[in-house]
Write a structure and sequence with these properties.
137 residues; mainly beta; Laminin; 2 domains; two-stranded antiparallel sheet; two-stranded antiparallel ribbon; 1 helix; disordered N terminus; protease inhibitor; TIL_dom; TIL domain-containing protein
Length: 137
């Protein structure tokens, strides 16, 4: 019985001091929602602990590796748009002439100047369907 307890203790110690990959370390109470290259502005995970490897400060998780945030792949955005770390939570669309959300930042693709969002695409407001507030048609 004592031998089994010793083996179990050694096994637990081996797992808990597990070697982590580059730019990461072991934590017994790490975040359940690690920072990644992909934005997740609405996650609430502070109250949940996860035991395991976590990225060191200044690094984010990407495809299982911890890399510098600056090394994350470029964000792909549709035509007439670009990536913004501080896009609007309610962008201007064919249906809504002014966002009206205040200063709420959401990392996202945003339409270039002179374009509005319409069903996931950024189009010239003149091409919005009839009866929209932007063109008055």
């Amino acid at each position: 019985m004592i031998w089994a307890a010793i083996v179990l203790s050694v096994a637990i110690k081996a797992v808990s001091s597990q070697d982590c990959g580059a730019n990461s370390h072991w934590e017994t109470c790490g975040s359940a929602c690690p920072q990644t290259c992909e934005p997740s502005p609405f996650q609430v995970c502070d109250a949940v602990c996860m035991t395991g490897c976590v990225c060191n400060a200044g690094f984010v998780l990407h495809n299982g590796d911890c890399i510098r945030h600056d090394d994350c792949p470029a964000k792909e955005c549709p035509a007439n748009s670009h990536w913004s770390e501080c896009g609007s939570a309610c962008p201007q669309t064919c249906e809504v002439s002014q966002g009206g959300c205040g200063a709420v930042c959401v990392p996202s693709c945003v339409c270039d100047d002179g374009f509005v969002s319409h069903h996931g695409a950024c189009i010239n407001p003149d091409h919005c369907p009839a009866g929209n507030p932007l063109t008055g048609r």
